[in-house]
Amino acid sequence: MKRTQRKIELYDTTLRDGAQREGISLTLEDKLKIVKRLDDFGIDYIEAGWPGSNPKDEKFFEQARDLKLNFSKLVAFGSTRKANTSTESDKNVISLLNANTNVITIFGKSWDLHVKEALKTTLDENLNMVSDTISYLNSKGKSVFFDAEHFFDGFKNNKEYALAVLKRAKDAKAKRIILADTNGGTLPDEIREIIREVKSYLGKNAILGIHCHNDSELAVANSIVAVQEGILQVQGTINGFGERAGNANLCSLIPILQLKMKIPLFEEEKLKALTPLSRFIDEIANITPNDHQPFVGKSVFAHKGGIHVSAVLSNPKTYEHIDPELIGNKRRVVISELSGTSNIIFKAKEMGIDLNKNRPETRKILSTIKELENQGYQFEAAEASFEILLWKGLCKTDELFDLIYWKTTVEYNERLKEIYAEAVIKLIVEGKISHSVGDGNGPVNAMDKALRSALSNHFPSLEKIHLSDYRVRVLGGSSGTGAGVRVLIDHTDSEETWTTLGVSSNVIEASYIALVDGIEYGLRKEKIRKDLKEISKKFQ
Predict the structure, then answer these.
(1) Band (4; pLDDT cuts 50, 70, 90)
(2) Rounded to two decimals, what is the model's pTM?
(3) Which helix (H) or strand (E) holds 163?
(4) Is 469 left (phi over 0), alpha (psi -120 to 50) or beta?
(5) What percentage of the chain has pLDDT greater than the value 70?
(6) Signal peptide position in this chain (predicted)?
(7) How far apart are alpha carbons 519 and 514 in whole angstroms?
(8) Is 280 inside any structural domain?
(9) Is the dihedral of CA 38, 40, 42, 44 positive or negative?
(10) Do 405 and 261 share a structural domain?
(11) Which of 490, 506, 400 lies closest to 454, judged by CA?
């Protein structure tokens, strides 16, 4: 899609405003990867940083000169010149020019409180700072966007002065004038009325943008109202990253604009890249994805209640406001104590298995699941355990091994300041007794080693399977240290990753259950899938 076809410009500030979120620290390599991904997706403008603020951003813009972007335009961000300083000698302005981007966004104060209290200068000097900086950058051939910081608060406090700041920016030939709700406290009806007054004051040829923060959880709503009032440019971040409560979330704004407001932004295949983009940014930023984030979250098209699932299977529109596949997400059905037979059937169908809900086996599995979930199991987080349960409930299977006993011990050496753990396990595998010992830095690690040692001679492919993550959740917190626990374990064989779980009042027993399921699934997953498909043919 060509840039000129869009009625709305998308301006991403993940690398600048988004990176100010607590807990995010992007490397130079991270920033370059994100720019490439945003360009591939089709963002109009990428605000890549503030070159005058830190050495990392200065180095980024040096390397960014070699980037070959297909769609996006890089933007350098900075402030107006300092008070009572010439624009030509202002270090921040010089850094902006050295960034070598065609587009520069500068921010200036539009709230008289900030002019007096933060800048410690006069209202007239602030106006000069705005116009001087924009005019000077224009003279150097740059396209200048003016970000009116704290505009809505400034307007409510001193309307005449806030509008005068915008007028100076317009007269200085700023290409875009961005209205910023920097504190995130403005309500949608206020946004609407203020934008109408701004448009009336500046005239038709002023091109406006909106930049909202989410402190009142209204950043997306306020941005939508601004679009309805005719602004051209929408600013935000991927996943709503940003300082404090974050910025307007482009992962919500984009599908709302295109799918609900019918404003064409992306071709169909491009829009499907939205959910993968969201998860890519989370991964690069080392942020745990918000599974319940609208549109792109893993759980926002998940259905748990049996009645809901039955309706969705009949017609997805009953409980889904859009088709998740339009934005690269997918429908999920989770298995829980709220499940009906429809959940089991849908989940099995995801695995390529067609079940008949009227068969007693299906209802028996449902009964088993409800009983287990009453104990604390949650199969929605451990689909491999569910698949094993389904397999054992439908097919005649031999156990991988029979347990005789296991034992773990933990010792602490005060002199060495070290913990030593040992696990002993005795199994019957293929009719033979296998007795093994494992040691490790904890009882679960020792148990894992003992299990592997006991099974490795019988199952050589176990060597490819590795434990990749281990998580414990305490159940029934009122019982304190005597509470039950839910253990989830991720295993991988370099081709796939799967999750299993165990529940017990004893964390070692819960870990053992999850370990065994994880190992069994890894060793027998091909047989499990084959058997389930064969049995489903008989049910048809």
Answers:
(1) very low
(2) 0.69
(3) helix 159-171
(4) beta
(5) 89
(6) none
(7) 9
(8) no
(9) positive
(10) no
(11) 400
Confirm whether 517 is domain-assigned.
yes
**Number of domains forming the structure of the chain:** 2
Q: Which of 226, 242, 265 is the endpoint of a domain? A: 265
Last residue of a domain, one of 265, 285, 313: 265
183, two tokens: 């504190």
| DSSP strand pairing (432-440 vs 73-79) | unpaired
Nearest to 102, CA basis, from 52, 45, 37: 45
Q: How far apart are CA 326 and CA 251, in angstroms?
A: 13
What range defines the domain where residue 407 resides? 401-539
Summarised one tens digit per residue, pLDDT across range 54-109 is 788 888 888 888 888 999 999 999 999 999 999 999 999 999 999 999 999 999 99
DSSP string, 75-136: EEEEEPPPTTS-GGG-HHHHHHHHTT-SEEEEEEE-SHHHHHHTS-S-HHHHHHHHHHHHHH
| CATH number, residue 407 | 3.30.160.270
Give dist(CA 522, CA 64) in Å, integer. 44
- Among 348, 333, 239, residue whose Cα is nearest residue 21: 239
Both structure tokens of 51: 């070159």
Distances (CA, A) of 209 to 31, 38, 70, 146, 234: 24, 20, 23, 9, 6
**CATH number of the domain where residue 169 is located:** 3.20.20.70
Q: Is the dihedral of CA 187, 189, 190, 192 positive or negative?
A: positive
Between CA 44 and CA 8 the distance in angstroms is 9
- The answer to the question of residue 285 being in a domain is no
Mention every residue, 6+ apart, whose C-beta is less than 8 A from residue 374: 337
